[in-house]
Prior knowledge:
The structure is a homodimer.
Chain A (H helix, E strand, L loop, with lengths): L4 H12 L2 H8 L3 H15 L4 E4 L2 E4 L1 H27 L5 E7 L7 H12 L3 E7 L2 H9 L5 E5 L7 E9 L2 E5 L12 H6 L2 E4 L4 H12 L8 E3 L2 H10 L3 E4 L12 E5 L8 E8 L6 H20 L3
Parallel strand pairs in A: 3-4, 3-5, 8-9, 8-10
Antiparallel strand pairs in A: 1-2, 5-12, 6-12, 7-10, 7-11
Helix pairs in contact in A: 1-2, 2-3
Chain B binds a DNA duplex through helix 3.
Amino acid sequence: MRHMETFRLIEAVARAGSIRKAAEDAGITASALNRRITRFEDEFGAQIFERLARGVRLNPAGELILQHYRSQRSDMARVQSQVADLSGVRRGHVSVACSQALLPYFLPEQISRYRHDHPGVTFSVIVRDRSRAEAELAAFNCDLALVFEPVMMVDFDIVAQCPQPVCAVMAEGHPLTKKPELRLRDCLNHPHVAPSAEYGVRSLLDVAAKSIGRQITPVVETESFELIRHYVQTEQTIGFQIPIGLDAQRQAGLVIRPVSERDVPPGVLILGQQRGRSLPVASFRFAMQISKALQDREMRDDF
Amino acid sequence: MRHMETFRLIEAVARAGSIRKAAEDAGITASALNRRITRFEDEFGAQIFERLARGVRLNPAGELILQHYRSQRSDMARVQSQVADLSGVRRGHVSVACSQALLPYFLPEQISRYRHDHPGVTFSVIVRDRSRAEAELAAFNCDLALVFEPVMMVDFDIVAQCPQPVCAVMAEGHPLTKKPELRLRDCLNHPHVAPSAEYGVRSLLDVAAKSIGRQITPVVETESFELIRHYVQTEQTIGFQIPIGLDAQRQAGLVIRPVSERDVPPGVLILGQQRGRSLPVASFRFAMQISKALQDREMRDDF
DNA sequence: CCAAGTTGTTCATTAAATGCATCGCTATTG
DNA sequence: CAATAGCGATGCATTTAATGAACAACTTGG
């Protein structure tokens, strides 16, 4: 779309913080870019950049403009996808931000199933912690966010949800695998491995530990859920994860036990979108599929 | 805004049904316009007009595009008004579609009150019957619709409402003014004057008459509420209107009596907007003021 | 007070949009 | 059935708008 060029440039300038830098990135001269911006400001009727000595910065009006532009761009993408849809071939692109826990099994399965029915649809998956995922949603950089225990910003709209008890992962032969019910204090008495603070599992554990007068003291703290799963098989420790990122059948040598809900309340896995936005056809249908899958999961209540 | 030019032209072509006519209206040649459209279609990736022998017509894709454009235009207007708002001076424009009943007292008073506080805000008021008012809303041609007994299309969002009993208007000295309670059958036994079929008052009366085995048989049927009010003072007849379009104090020589609610259920006056749309600041505040006014009216329960 | 970095301005140049004349097509009309 | 009028598409010359290059004016930090 040609008309959007100016907006794209404005966005680039806002990102770069300088007209010259943005111009260089865009492959035009600073003077041309500067004039586009001033012309736009004239037409719009207000300045959108603060002119500083060391560059430029969006002012509040500019923030509004940028928000408008992003929403317009996403809406145009939706229109295009609807048009492609009514012309018969189901094309489109779905862009999801998700927590790490969805990476090993859930999302690959869901995407594969969707693409089996609609091979014309492509996907992009970005991995973000819960607050970043919501930020991507708000910036219209993705259509859907699938996150555990989101921070729930104002413009976040819940599409579907599914409770997820915190689970302990251990290697076979770990002493705690014999216990019929796994209490948090038992886990904390053994060496444990935990995700870092920005993750939902950790924040649930922190709160729960505090309420029994204890503290999470991981021997290894990491951003990578994958590392946790592998580490517990290397050193005899306890890791914490949520069931959707685990698969009892497939994880050979790994034992998965829910931590007693008396100690740690289950968190919620949430599929969300930007409030008030109408999604492209493909994203909408994918969201419906995910919702159904989460619902089925809740029915089965497995982990 | 420059970028929207092509969309404006597309809209003009869709309205005119012909590229040549639209080009003439827009003051450019048909060839230029034709090429803008084909270029847009290329960029967009799909045809948006059906080429017929006698001109062009929007296809479904074109309808979507037009809808998108209108929504974007209105959203841009909102952004501009927000920017004007945060720059201190409260400027803006409010555009309302309303039923005739609001013209004599209610809307003038409300607009005047709002403009007293915010002189920078301008208004446009268009008069439409209830279904037309909703159509204007859906086409983003106005921000608010204030209508009696709307037909309630899918994208119509209720902001506020206020019940309005159907009232009979008569000249002083009309025999029915003596009755303590006014029954519908009494009214129908006298010569009466009614609004035409597209109006809410009439449809309420039609339903009510039918349920008592009668029929509305107006000696004068008109689109103009004003004519009704004046006619009942010329020939001894009964007119029907809703209280918000009347003012017991100010209507010299006119008697207003509610028709018994046992016969005719009260209709509802509704303030609505297009679903999912965020209104410009001025329109939003005006809507809030109207809501409050309607609420106060309902409390006073006067007519 | 200078060096480095920025926005804003001027003018020649380049790219895009437009106007004009014309073609081919189709429905209408006599 | 043929003439005609109205339509969108297209090639070419022209006008208009956007751009690039160089420079001016300004702010900040040392």
